[in-house]
Design brief:
By secondary structure, this protein is mainly alpha-helical. The chain has a domain of 59 residues. The chain contains 4 helices and 2 strands; from the N terminus they run ββαααα. It has a two-stranded antiparallel ribbon with strand order 1-2. A hairpin with an 8-residue loop joins strand 1 and strand 2. Helix 2 packs antiparallel against helix 3 and helix 3 runs antiparallel to helix 4. The longest helix has 32 residues. 10% of the residues are buried.
Amino acid sequence: MMTIKLVKGAVKMKKEDILMKSQMENHDEGEENAENQGRALGVIAMAVIFIFITVFSIIFSRNNSTASYAASAMFWAFLSAYYIPQYRFAKKKSTLVVSIGFAIASIASLLTFIIMVIE
């Protein structure tokens, strides 16, 4: 049996106790890593589709296309929400400013979309 001593007079724990505690927490780092990779891939996929819809609308639309504004509203809202947990964790003002900027862009795109649909 291996005993591990923690820093500053903390309680000694056996290797088996540490492994058992880790298993009881039901935390799988591999699953967490896969989820993070999935989120990163999702951001890239959404950005590619957003760029395609916007460019396609600009090139082929005979009038002002509402599709690009709808896509913009969703994209900016997604990015705004994406940065909120990062701000909560790191408390970096730059991350908060970016999130607020994306939220403003989302609201502006959404309002433009609504106005264009109503007209």
